[in-house]
Structure formats: C-alpha cells, structure tokens
Amino acid sequence: MNPIILIPARLGSTRLPGKVLADIAGLPMIVHVLRRAQEAGLGPVAVACGEAEVAEVVEKHGGTVLLTAPDLPSGSDRIHAALEALDPEGKHGVVINLQGDLPSIDPSYLATVLTPLAQGFDIGTLVAPITSAEEALSPSVVKCVCAFPGDEAVAPALYFSRNPVPGGEGPLWHHIGIYAYRREALARFVSLPPSPLELREKLEQLRALEAGMRIGAARVAGAPFGVDTPADLEHARRMLGHV
Q: What is the CATH architecture assignment of 106-176+191-223?
C-alpha cells in the first residue's frame, strides 16, 4: 500500500496550549511521536504543522516537516494539505494520521491500523477493550460500536459516541484516534461539510459514516496514553523518564 505517516500538530490546544512542544524526558513531545512513527518502519514520516515554532523544532531533530496554513479546521485537513504538497505525484496510496499527543504509542499499532484497508474498508482505525466503569462513563473516552465475531481482528465500525454504547451485555470498545485512509477516501472526507451527527457528538469520524464511507476497526490490547491535560503531561514525564 506504500503508506506515508503524517503527524498533524498545532500549538493551540484548548486544555494544554503548546503541548506538542512540551518537554518530556529532554525531548519535545512531538519528537517522541515522530520517533515512534519512524520506529514502525512502514514508510516516510512527516509532521504537518501550522506554526513555524513547531517546524523549527522538528527540523532541529532531523524530521521532515510541512508548514501548512494555520487556520485549517482539523488535523485531517492538515494532513491532506501536507500530503498534496509532499507527494503531488500520488506515489503513496495510503496515509496514516497519527496524533501528535501520543508520545508512548506502540509502533506496531501503526501496522495494525492498516489491516482494515487490506479487507476493503475505506478507512482503518483502532479500538481497545474498555476495562472499567470510569472509562465507560467518561465523555472523553470515545466508544466505537463494533462487534468481533470469534477471533476476528477487524470489524466494521457502525457508530461512535461519547456515551457507553451499545447497550446490553458485552464488551465496550475504546476508540483510539489513529486512522489509515485510502488516499481517495481522505480527499473525499475533507471535501465533505460537517455532518449533523458529527456536530451533535463532536466526533469528526461520524462525517465519514454519514456519507456512506466504510470504517474498519482493528482491535489492540490497550489504548495508548494520550496527553490532554497538565496532569497527563506529568504522567507522561514519569512514564518516559527513563528515555
């Protein structure tokens, strides 16, 4: 599939401004994420950012960076702009969108997110089992409605919500916001206007489902730790302090 990994990054985080440049064990967070992506060994890796400060840091640490328009509405728009600039000839048929706030992501997860595309889905993503009532009830943990028959590793994603769905007995699945797009699927996705359910749930991926695009969810053992708050940042510093 000849994938390229793109990491959208911006300084204007609501809950933790400037977090992508926050120091963790002597390195900016975006550099940790960049290195995890490079360790996956799947293809070229680049950071798509909206600010020169981020670009300078990435270049200083030997990474490839594309400075995009600062006012793009989402990370998906940012990686699409970067993809068109970095690969105008269309050599890469698949793009992996890796969030810039996952400094401890397991590099193997980036190969796993490609598996739904091999089964014909337009978009691949990841889910992990929810293991506590607190996790199930937290609105910050997005749930994916999917079912894995038998030992199947990939299932269609039918819906996403901040509520603990579906009802009844059975596992709940924590959605991990890493995506693999077929190139044409990404182009179509960013061309669509925000959809009613997307606006209601404040979940961008619902736009794809409402437009009839097929998302496949691949399951992994556990959700990676993301940095969204000052407390998360301190936790990440403790986790990666040995680096």
A: Alpha-Beta Complex (3.90)
pLDDT-based confidence at residue 242 (cuts at 50, 70, 90): low
Q: Inform me whether the pLDDT recorded for 11 exceeds 90.
A: no
For the chain, the domains span 1-103, 106-176+191-223
Q: Is the pLDDT of residue 168 over 70?
A: yes
Question: What does pTM read for this prediction?
Answer: 0.94
What pLDDT, in 10s, does the model give residues 134-161? 999 999 899 999 999 888 999 999 999 9
What's the CATH number for 1-103?
A: 3.90.550.10
- What local confidence, expressed as pLDDT, does residue 230 receive? 87
Q: Decide whether 1-103 matches 106-176+191-223 in CATH topology.
A: yes
Separation between Cα atoms, residue 220 and residue 61, nearest integer Å: 30
